[in-house]
User: Fold this.
Amino acid sequence: MPRHFLTGAELSRDELIALIDRAIELKAAPHASRALEGKSVGLIFQKPSTRTRLSFETGVFELGGNPVILRPDEMQLSRGEPVRDTAYVLSRHVAAFGIRTHGDELIEELAQYATVPVFNMLTAGHHPCQALADLVTVKETFGTLDGVVLTYVGDGNNVARSLAIVGSRAGAEIRVAAPEGYQLEDGIGAELFEDPAEAVRGANVVYTDVWVSMGDEETAAERRAALADYRVDDALLDLAADDAVALHDLPAHPGDEITAEVLYGDRQRIWDQAENRRHAQKALLELLVR
Ligand code: CP
Ligand code: NVA
Assistant:
């Protein structure tokens, strides 16, 4: 069985810690690794992306490899070619491939039949590559992950779920504050709160994501209303630890889930976090194609 990365739970705690440290090393020396020399990596995008595409395409290049971007309208998959056949054929050409798609069933089926590693570039359920970059950012800000309190405020979505699974495994304390109906499920590594003020007390990181994820557009108005008290602003940050920083995986909607003051202010590490996607994913690709 090849090494897949679908939810992040495939990596042990030690592997995660090593991967985060490796990402920080690669950030200091971006051309230090030729792990993908002579190899190609498939990148299938069935949903829009700015950061994920940029960071994977440039990251594969920096590792000496060839990124192959595949759009759904250009693939036979969209004309009914079986998922199994798609996985077989991709596996004959690339050293690994990733997909950004809707439900989690498609990536699971691809992984079932692929003979090369498959990685998740965002599904409705998970965004584990984002969580890796988040943890790299926490480690470079605080020097450790152990016991760092990371509070996610807002919709209990794919980004929150990956943070809970991957962050708790790496040693951080993950809290999620969300209103009823938008809460993350219990038992995946996060302590659940309804009151954002209570959840950010003592937090080192205050994290948020969009209120309307890709695929949730039909319920946009009710989501905005339900989540209106879950905005990350200066007043909420003031309730966190003195050294607290704000994170956001982006794209942001200033005025909704985060204020412009926080997004462009001096208590955020959001733009470093966006850059860290590339470094984290390079460390992941090194591990997967080893
Ligand atoms: N954070 C993130 O995954 O951004 P994109 O949707 O632009 O890839
Ligand atoms: N939760 C968001 C993340 C975007 C990077 C979405 O799925 O659209």
